[in-house]
Amino acid sequence: LLRGWPFEDPEEADAQLEAIRELLTSRGEDGSTIPEIEEFDVGRAYTWWSETYDSPNPLIAAEEPVVRELLGALEPGIAVDVATGTGRLARLLETLGHRVVALDASAEMLNRARASAPDIRLARADIQALPIRAGDVDLVTCALALTHTRALNEAIAEFGRVLRPGGRLLVS
Fold first, then answer.
1. CA-CA distance, 50 to 47, in Å (whole number)?
2. For 132, phi and psi rounded to 5 degrees?
3. pLDDT, tens only, 78-111
4. How far is 117 from 20, CA to CA, in rounded Å?
């Protein structure tokens, strides 16, 4: 409900808030106040989302300029883009001169990344078990993905494991 938030149109935003309020206060057949919503695992959700992920997304529009500026200030090196999705940051890293490995758990997202960035090395991988040797990379990026992991400490520790001493981690 919030993905296409109408930032520029206050009336539309109010209507969307009202729709959310209505959804959250409606009563189910059993009298419960919270409607049952089918929960999808992350992999299944991203399979569906892969088709529209790169369409206008207010979160990406807000995040990307800041990330672009931060990455532009770094010396090129070996970069791993964890949870690359459609390869948005991997493509940026490549244009900035990095040698890029892009990883994602979703085969569908990797297919999208492969179509738009055929020269980038792509692999399917779990965020908590990266197929990278310890201390091998200069930069790890992970954009808009850590919200999906239940073991945040383990994911961050894995990022640290693959970074060289003095390497950089950029998480958004």
1. 6
2. -130, 140
3. 999 999 988 999 999 999 999 999 999 888 889 9
4. 38
Amino acid (one-letter) located at 171: V
- Which pTM does this prediction carry? 0.73
| Largest interatomic CA distance in the chain | 59
The CA angle 145-94-99, to the nearest 5 degrees, is 95
And the tokens for 27? 């009563």
Q: How far is CA 107 from CA 34, 51, 151, in A?
A: 33, 12, 22
Which residues 6+ apart lie within 8 Å of 164 measured at CB?
Answer: 135, 136, 137, 138
Number of residues written out for the chain: 172
DSSP structure class, residue 148? G
Residue 3, token pair as written in the block: 């993905």
Q: Are 134 and 162 in contact (CB under 8 A)?
A: yes
